[in-house]
Predict the 3D structure of the following.
Amino acid sequence: MSKFFYGIEDLFVNYLFYLYDLFRSMDSWWGSNTVNWVFTVIGFVATVYWMKELKIFNDNGEEDKSISSHSYL
């Protein structure tokens, strides 16, 4: 059973997270934080998109504005 877990370790450390090791070895702060900036931009775009969709539902009057959102409240 231990070989199974060592295999999982080998998969993640040597293959799936290989790019993170390359970023960690860089001397540039901007270069090593590229992944964080990409995720930040993706999150920002997704938030703007979601707010735009919520505004569409709100303008159509489909938004539930009741005081109690759950029956147990």
Observations:
- The chain has one domain: 2-60.
- Residues 1 and 69 are 48 Å apart (CA to CA).
